[in-house]
Design a protein that fits this description.
Layout (H helix, E strand, L loop, with lengths): L2 H14 L8 H12 L9 E3 L2 E6 L3 E5 L6 H13 L2 E5 L2 H12 L3 H4 L2 E4 L4 H6 L2 E6 L1 H10 L5 E6 L2 E7 L6 H12 L9 E7 L4 H16 L11 H16 L3 E4 L9 E6 L11 E7 L4 H4 L7 E6 L5 H9 L4 E4 L23 E5 L4
Parallel strand pairs: 3-4, 3-6, 4-5, 6-7, 8-9, 8-13, 9-12, 11-12, 13-14
Antiparallel strand pairs: 1-2, 2-15, 10-11
Helix pairs in contact: 1-2, 1-3, 8-9
InterPro entries: CoA_reduct_LuxC
Keywords: Membrane, NADP, Transmembrane, Transmembrane helix
Organism: Methylacidiphilum kamchatkense Kam1
Length: 362
């Protein structure tokens, strides 16, 4: 099957599942052209410098999905289908239902190119020539150790995203609403979900408190909207974080934990980054920008996206880039990256393929 044929069949899936990030076949065509330099790179040799080259897709990809978010699974399988590989998907229980639904909408020709397993399938793993893993560092290292050097390994570990607010002069409620959207989507469980909003500590305390109050108000407006299911253990973790924050003297705005989609806003002054527990729990951190580099040290190399509230100075951009950030965007767009973004700073389909060069003159 040729690349364009696969793209035509994936067009409807992109439109049925917009959370994947592709609007349709036009985006898929553009992605192939951008990353592989030719729409037919997977089908035939094309001119490249003084020779010709061709992209070779993995015959079989073994995908290991994380349990926290199904969207990454949708994207990984779609990209595997796009390049023409057979896809074996190790699927944890929390995302199984969503992935089965996704696969059910695939055309038969593509559905036959996907196989689900619900535990480690050693035979399929050994037969695959590309391994794609989503998860924590221990999961990444475990599967990396199992992967022979002749197989391609692509690991996507847990990442952290932040919002740079800077100095607050006026309470921009429109931007606060957009920030609340970023915090709320996918119940703040993904790598693109902001964990903290950074405000320069020179901002007057009363202004910061007003900002936090406005953010709390915005989050409260969606408390009745269904988010991801929260079990008793997770509710206990949220309560413990709230109690600890109050004990430390930090100001806390909170909803009832009995609400269907609870939220928490915590204003603090801290010397370094600390993660929240997700489920719409956001830190608003007062930070000395001259010490931002030190503040970011615990997440050096782990920063995905920096959401920009209004503006961000060039020197702050450089600090984030040096700390490993791979994407900057306006608030409201953190969870909706471009179809052509570099996931973890890398090309998404070029990472999957290998290249064969033809240097024999015609």
């Amino acid at each position: 099957m040729q690349t364009l044929e696969r793209i035509e069949m994936l067009d409807a899936i992109c439109k049925l599942f917009p959370e994947i990030g592709f609007r349709g076949k036009e985006d898929l065509i553009r992605l192939v052209e951008l990353e592989l330099k030719s729409l037919t790179a997977l089908d035939d040799f094309f001119e490249y410098g003084q020779a010709k080259t061709k992209a070779i897709a993995p015959r079989q990809i073994y995908h290991v999905l994380a349990a926290n978010l199904y969207v990454a699974g949708f994207q990984s399988v779609l990209l595997g289908l796009l390049v023409g590989s057979f896809n074996v998907v190790q699927c944890p229980k929390p995302v199984t239902e969503s992935l089965l639904r996704f696969i059910s909408f695939l055309p038969k020709e593509l559905k036959n190119q996907v196989e689900l397993c619900f535990a480690f399938n050693q035979k399929a793993f050994e037969q695959s020539d590309c391994i794609v893993v989503f998860g924590g560092n221990r999961t990444i290292e475990h599967f990396k150790a199992l992967t022979p050097s002749d197989k391609r390994f692509i690991g996507h570990g847990h990442k952290v995203s932040l919002i740079w607010v800077g100095t607050i002069e006026n309470i921009n409620r429109e931007k606060i609403t957009l920030s609340a959207k970023d915090i709320s989507l996918f119940s703040q469980l993904g790598c693109l979900s902001p964990q903290s909003m950074l405000i320069e500590e020179t901002t007057p305390t009363n202004t910061i408190l007003s900002f936090c109050g406005a953010l709390a108000e915005s989050l409260s407006q969606t408390s009745s909207e269904k988010g991801f299911d929260i079990n008793m253990e997770e509710l206990a973790t949220i309560k413990q974080l709230r109690d600890c924050s109050k004990a430390l003297g930090w100001t806390v705005w909170e909803s009832s934990l009995t609400e269907i989609n609870p939220w928490t806003v915590i204003h603090r002054r801290s010397n370094s980054f600390e993660p929240t527990c997700g489920y719409r729990t956001i830190y608003v951190d007062s930070v000395d920008k001259t010490k931002l580099k030190e503040w970011l040290k615990p997440i050096q190399g782990m920063i995905s996206t920096v959401g920009v509230f209004e503006t961000i100075p060039d020197d702050i951009v450089r600090i984030f880039i040096d700390a490993g950030a791979t994407r900057f965007c306006s608030v409201g767009q953190m969870q909706e990256p471009s179809a052509f973004w570099h996931h973890d700073g890398r090309n998404r389909i070029e990472d999957l393929v290998r290249w064969v060069d033809w240097e024999i003159p015609n």
